[in-house]
Amino acid sequence: MNNPILAQVAAPALAAGVLAGCNLLAMPGSGGPNAAPTRTPDAFQVDVCADLAASNVPATAAAATSSAPALDTRHKRNRITLPASGSARAGYVKLNSDKAGDWQILLTRDVPLKVGDAGGTWVPPAASRSAFPDCPDIAAQYTVNLKLGTYYLYLGPTSETEVSIVTENGEEE
Amino acid sequence: MKRIDRRGGSRAIRPGACALWLSFTTGCALGAGGAFSRLASESRLTVALPLAAGRLDSAGRWVTNNGYAVTLDGGIRLGKAAVTLVGAGGGTAAAAFDPARPPSGYTSCHSGHCHRSDGALVPYAEVAADLARKAGGVATSSAAVLTFALADLALAAGGEASRSAAACEPCLLGRGTIVGADLAVASLAASGTVEATPGAPSPGAATRSWTLAVGALPLLPGTLSRAIDRDAPSGLVFGGRLALSEKLFDNLEWAGFAATGTIAIDASPSALTSIRANLARSNWQAGFQAGN
Lengths: 173, 292
Fold this sequence. Notes:
The structure holds 2 protein chains of 2 kinds.
Chain A: H1 4-21, H2 43-54, E1 57-60, E2 78-81, E3 84-85, E4 88-97, E5 101-107, E6 113-117, E7 127-129, E8 140-146, E9 149-158, E10 162-168
Parallel strand pairs in A: 1-2
Antiparallel strand pairs in A: 2-10, 3-4, 4-9, 5-8, 5-10, 6-9, 7-8
Chain B: E1 37-39, E2 44-48, E3 62-63, E4 68-72, E5 76-78, E6 81-88, E7 106-110, E8 113-116, E9 121-123, H1 124-134, E10 140-148, E11 154-155, E12 160-164, E13 167-169, E14 172-173, E15 176-185, E16 188-196, E17 208-214, E18 223-228, E19 235-243, E20 263-264, H2 269-279, E21 283-290
Parallel strand pairs in B: 1-19, 2-19, 17-20
Antiparallel strand pairs in B: 1-14, 2-12, 3-4, 4-16, 5-11, 5-16, 6-10, 6-15, 7-8, 8-9, 10-13, 15-18, 16-17, 19-21
């Protein structure tokens, strides 16, 4: 089964079917009225996985902010190639924030990330997360509070040659 | 059966235009005098340019997402607007929308919305309505076209204005259901100045003048549901509100234009594409209420 989400959902269902066929449904924890409620997949993670699967916008990170490529912030997978930087790989991409508020920045590799504004001031993340049971393609999530305007994401240093980025800001458009 | 005396249509828009009218039903071919309702003269279109608080700087300039401050000379001018009311006959069932099988143009559906190919997240209700109109099962056709003259309108940043309908064709509506109201605007024109804010690449001078002329704007589909039957009021007032996107100038690379003279935004294909994509993010809502 290629779809990891389907695999997660389908595996318990198959197991329940096998148990039903063996007349074991009455056993505690195997189904019936006392069964533990089925966990609902996290909608946000499912959303991001859908974005990752449905789009591919390639770009190469730049050594300087002045030539950093702009991310497509409309629920798209930005597949970023990381250029060599000394003995590692690193580079800048640009995020043009069209909405003030919390932005979620999701990475498919656990690459170090720093966010800076157009004036060069770093913006510390308000939260971060590294466990995504409903979208194993995600490796890291950072929440940053941004105003309207240009921000730069510095990715690296890392040994990874590529990382994909999806951004979400709560807008459904 | 409630019928409208077409000769007594003094409140209808341009009564002479109503001589020809089309039934948009699939199972009921209405003859002359078979209209169930009429578009009222109070039908209006409101056009707005709402800006969130952060979109205006202390000098009242329109701020973009990539560090530019834009002013408008007078305001945004729009060409004629036409609202096509889309009718569906009641004889067949709507094509079923199944989130497990995203319709063409959508990549996946879950959690109450579908991912459209361009990245937009569209609520199930809109997808279902779109499917009903496009994918068969329900015959649709233009039930009427309302036109609005907007030439005298200059929309300032944060502004709003309304205009009454100039004409309808036809003005009388036969039995069926109105399921859509698609807005077409013939043109958009504007001019003004642009300045870079600190950190943004210079557009070539401290202040540059610019002009913009866009032909037919992207069609904005509207979804609604209004039954036209014996219980419908004899007069229906259409009301629509177009809120132009505050992101109109977002992502424009102002530093990429020729370094001297007035910037003609639409002369750059990539800039025009960006403007048109941003225009497609405008908000369009439509509905009906009973009139006289």
